[in-house]
Amino acid sequence: MVNKVKEAWAQGRAVVNGWLAIPSGFSAEVMAQSGFDSLTVDMQHGVQDYLSAVACFQGMQPHGVTPMVRVPWNEPGIIGKVLDAGAMGLICPMVNTAEQAAALVSACRYPPEGTRSFGPIRAGIYGEAGSYFDTANKDIAVLPMIETKQALDNLEAILDTPGVDGIYVGPSDLGLSLGLAPKLDREEPEVLKIYERLLKETGKRNQAVGIHNGSAPYAKRMIGMGFKLVTIMNDSGLMLTAARAAVATAKG
User: What global pTM score does this model have?
Assistant: First the structure.
């Protein structure tokens, strides 16, 4: 059970991530054939629940993309369930302290490294646990989101938490926390300086930084800046953008 995202990071490569807000295995299947390295089911702000997340995993599985989830909150029940369903990466919102980061890691790791309960019903191939237990702790990527001023104040302590593989930037909430309007592709000098700080501190620790982007050109720019996981919009946003462009062309 190799996590191709973590493998890419170990080789110094960035990954391009898709974002699934639509609760549909068919939509996930389409996205999985689009060239993304990983796909993240958004259970926080997307229209996804647990069963639709499982359907999305089933839709993407034949196509070799790495399945990930953004959980709605730092709560061990839902974290354990999505990992049991087959998630190989876990993005968690609003992690603001080292204690919260430690709780996140604990929920993602089996004892003695954590407190995750054993029962990988789908991750272990439909009830046959096999070798899942042997590798799960090292294979699952744990990414707390950095999206508040409090998290920035506690950045070094969060990054020093054992088991944290990297961080994921939420530009909209980060902007709100700094008194700015919520948006994705930010150009404010103070925000870009924060991005540089995140890259510097994670670089010292051999950790990855991910970021959500509103456009492919900005995502490419972030890769050039040093980000190792870039998300381009989400499935509903990509569909709307393409549909608007097609209609505009047809109408002249």
Answer: 0.96
